[in-house]
Design brief:
This protein is α+β, with helices and mostly antiparallel strands.
Length: about 140
């Protein structure tokens, strides 16, 4: 069974034919220095076809919840007040998605870092009022 969580994917490669997406190639997200999992799935519409390679690592029982939390915090961060503390966004997301008997939860500090990173990527490169364009050594922090 495959589940697509909106706003959660970071890596996807689409095969294009005549300006129309014909299929989507999904790969396993476990790709580090020490372990390179080559498991993959090809999606055509609602049909999923597993690739030739199997997973080379044990499964993570809390992965779906972790992905949903990350996507939820990312969505809330993009749509909420820019001055709202990142940890408040993480707490709201965890309150909405986590049940008392859930385990294998992500560290809130890592979700907070993801929120701040997302905000930094969406922040303007220069401040329109202060005209800080071209100044060296200025760092935006949220």
């Amino acid at each position: 069974m495959y589940t697509i969580v909106e706003n959660a994917s970071q890596r996807v490669d689409e095969n294009w034919s005549a300006k129309k997406a014909t299929s989507t190639f999904w790969t396993c997200s476990v790709r580090g220095r020490t372990m390179m999992c080559r498991a993959s799935v090809t999606q055509k519409g609602e049909d999923f076809t597993p690739g030739d390679a199997e997973h080379v690592h044990p499964s993570d029982p809390g992965l779906l919840l972790k992905v949903k939390l990350a996507a939820s915090t990312r969505t809330i961060a993009e749509t909420s007040d820019i001055f709202r503390p990142a940890m408040d966004i993480v707490k709201d997301s965890m309150t909405a998605h986590v049940e008392p008997d859930d385990f294998c939860l992500p560290k809130p500090s890592l979700l907070k870092r993801a929120v701040n990173s997302n905000r930094q990527n969406c922040a303007p490169r220069s401040h329109p009022i202060l005209n800080l364009r071209g100044k060296q050594g200025i760092m935006w922090r949220y």
